[in-house]
UniProtKB/TrEMBL annotation:
CDD domains: IscU_like. Belongs to the NifU family. It comes from the Bacteria. Pfam families: NifU_N. One of its GO terms (biological process) is iron-sulfur cluster assembly. This is Iron-sulfur cluster assembly scaffold protein. One of its GO terms (molecular function) is iron ion binding.
Length: 159
């Protein structure tokens, strides 16, 4: 497949997830939740997660944002559902490394569709947009009370 055809396919996947986001809305039962903002462009996400028996059984997001932010949130929800919180945290780490582009041989298969966002690394202004949902998930899952600390995304990646 020619490079331009591959780029077009990736663009289509991103546009489809943005226009028809998966797991968009609210959950009936929530164990972990958070609201985060990207002050750079105004993206806002409210993330709700239902964890039981050490599995992410359901996940939903709402809020407003750019195409990259909404597509990334949709892809993230698809990728993490059914995984343990520890597996989801590993996915967050892989995603963070991928979008800053500092590890060219990084295995991104666990990210499923979200691996198409690897091109974001070429556009530093869009990194925070792509990372918002993933950071929100990490914050929601790692808070002791399940209520992640609401806040703003201020860094491109976790160290």
């Amino acid at each position: 497949m020619a490079l331009s055809s591959l780029d077009n396919l990736y663009r289509q996947v991103i546009l489809d997830h943005s226009a028809h986001p998966h797991h968009h809305g609210h959950l009936q039962q929530v164990t972990n939740e958070i609201e985060m903002r990207n002050p750079t462009c105004g993206d806002v996400i409210q993330l709700e997660v239902a964890v039981s028996n050490d599995k992410i059984n359901d996940i939903a997001f709402s809020g407003d944002g750019c195409t990259i932010s909404q597509a990334s949130a949709s892809m993230m929800t698809d990728a993490v559902i059914g995984n343990t919180p520890a597996q989801a945290e590993e996915m967050v780490q892989v995603f963070s490394k991928m979008i800053i582009g500092d590890q060219p041989n990084l295995d991104t298969k666990i990210l499923e569709d979200a691996s198409v966002l690897n091109g974001v690394a070429k556009f530093p202004a869009r990194i925070k947009c792509a990372a918002l949902a993933w950071k929100a998930l990490n914050n929601a899952l790692t808070s002791n009370d399940g209520k992640g600390k609401a806040g703003q995304i201020v860094e491109h990646h976790d160290n």
